[in-house]
Amino acid sequence: MGINESLNCIDLFCGCGGLSLGFEKAGFNVLLGIDAWQDAITTFNYNHKNSKGICADLSTLNPEEIEKELNGKNVDLIIGGPPCQGFSVAGKRIVDDERNKLYKNFVRFVEYYKPKAFMMENVPNILSIGEGIVKDSIVKDFSDLGYKVVYRILTASDYGVPQNRRRAVFVGFKDGMEFKYPHSTVKNRITSKEAISDLPDKTITDGDKYPLEPQSEYQKTMRENAKGLYNHRITLHTEQTKRIISLVPDGGNYKNLPLELQNTRKVHIAWTRLDSTKPSFTIDCGHNHHFHYEYNRVPTVRESARIQSFPDDFVFLGKQGSQLRQVGNAVPPLMAEEIAKQMKKLLEGGQIDV
Q1: b vs e for 23-43, b when ≥16 Cβ sit within 10 Å of the residue's Cβ?
Q2: Per-residue b/e over 55-89, b at no fewer than 16 CB within 10 Å?
Q3: Which of 42, 158, 289, 302 would you call most buried, defined as having the most Cβ atoms within 10 angstroms of its Cβ?
Q4: What is the pLDDT of residues 55-111, one digit of tens each?
C-alpha cells in the first residue's frame, strides 16, 4: 500500500524504526522518528526514506520544537515506546521525578498535537507494577486528554513473528471510539528454524548473494525486496565457550550442562539455545547468553533481525554490538503492522475485526 497523506504519524522513542516500519506497511505516513540514540537514528534514516529521524532527548524536548519539521502537516497518530526504567511508584500515581520525564513527555506530545489516536507499547509487567497503580495512572493521563484507552498484552508469535515476545500495548482513540485488538493471523507459529535455516555458519560480505535457497515461506517473504545478504557476520567465540555451547542441546539451557559448568554465568538465561521447533524466546540485546539452535555461536545481526521479523532489505548500521542492541530493542514490525491495520480501519471510519 502506498503512503496515505491523510494519515500522518510521528514515532517517539523510535529506535531503529521497527514500529514505524509496521505502520508504514499498513499505509501510514510516518513523518518523524525521534530518539536520543544516534546509532539508532542513523539506521532509521537509512531505511525510512520518506521519514525524518531526529536525534533528541525526549525528556527535555518540547513538542512545539519539532513543529517546523512537520511542514504544516497534521499529526493524526502518535506511536512509541517510552523506556520503562523510570516508572517508580508512590501513593496512587506515577511520581513526577527525573526518571519519569520520558513517559510524561509522550503524554505532553499527545496533549500538544491532539492526534486522533495514539499507541504506546511497553514491557508486560507495566500492567502489574504496584498492583496496577502505573497502569491506572497511564489510563487516567490519556483519559483526561479525551481518549478512550484500552490495553492488552500481545504475543508477537500470534502475528507471524518467529518469537514469543510479549508486549503491553495501550491504544487510545478520541470521540469515544474503542479499539479492538487484532486476532492472531497464523494457524501455525513460525519456528526459529523456519526463520533462519537459510543463513549459513559463515560470515557473508554485506551485499553478497545468498549462499542458500530459501527453505520456508517465511524466508521467501523476508527476502522479497533484498538486493543481497547484509548484517551476517559471525561472532568468534573462544574455544572454551564453543565447547560449553556444544554441550547444550537444541532448545536446552544451562541445566543441561555438567554441574561444574552450570554456574559459569550468573544469569538464569545463560547458555540458552534456540529451539528449532518453536518460535524464539524474547531475544536479548547482544548479551551473548542465547545461542543458535544448531551452531555453537550467538545469532548474527541478520538472524536476530529475522527473529524480530525485520525484512532482509532493512539494513542495520553501526558497530556489531550496536546493531544487535538496535534489533533487540525494536518492536517486531509484523506485529506492529497488524496493530496499525486495525487502527487504520477505525481512523478511516470502516469496520474493524472483533
Answers
A1: bbbbbbbbbbbbbbbebbbbb
A2: beebbebebeebeeeeeeeebbbbbbbbbeebbee
A3: 302
A4: 999 989 999 999 999 999 999 999 999 986 666 666 556 666 666 778 889 999 999
- Does 5 score more than 90 pLDDT? no
Range 310-340 burial, b when 16+ CB lie within 10 A, else e = bbbebbbbbeeebbbbbbbbbbbbbbbbbbb
Residue with cell 527453505: 215
Query: Within 13 Å of residue 238, how many CA atoms lie on the same side as its CB?
Result: 4
* High-pLDDT (> 70) share of the chain, %: 90
Q: What does the block give as the cell for 254?
A: 544451562
- Secondary structure of 178-213 as H, E, C letters: CCCCCCCCCCCCCCHHHHHCCCCCCCCCCCECCCCC
Q: Angle 133-143/101-113 helices, nearest 10 degrees?
A: 20
- The pLDDT, as a whole number, for residue 287 is 67
CA–CA gap between residue 259 and residue 308 (Å, rounded)? 33
User: 344 exposed, middle or buried (CB, 10 Å; 0-12, 13-18, 19+)?
Assistant: buried
Report the pLDDT value the prediction gives residue 130, as an integer from 0 to 100. 81
Worst-scoring range by mean pLDDT, 134-148, 193-207, 263-277? 263-277
Q: What would the DSSP string read from start to end of 215-281? A: -SHHHHHHHTT-SSB-S-------HHHHHHHHTSPTT--GGGS-HHHHTSS-STTTTEEPPTTSPBP
Q: How far is Cα 311 from Cα 333, in angstroms, rounded to an integer?
A: 9
CA distances to 32, 137, 149 from 127, in Å: 28, 10, 13
Is residue 84 annotated as a catalytic residue, yes or no? yes
**Rounded to the nearest 5 degrees, what angle is found at the Cα of 331, between the Cα atoms of 326 and 334?**
120
Catalytic residue among 9, 16, 55, 84: 84
pLDDT value of residue 154: 98
What CA–CA distance (Å, rounded) separates 34 from 75? 14
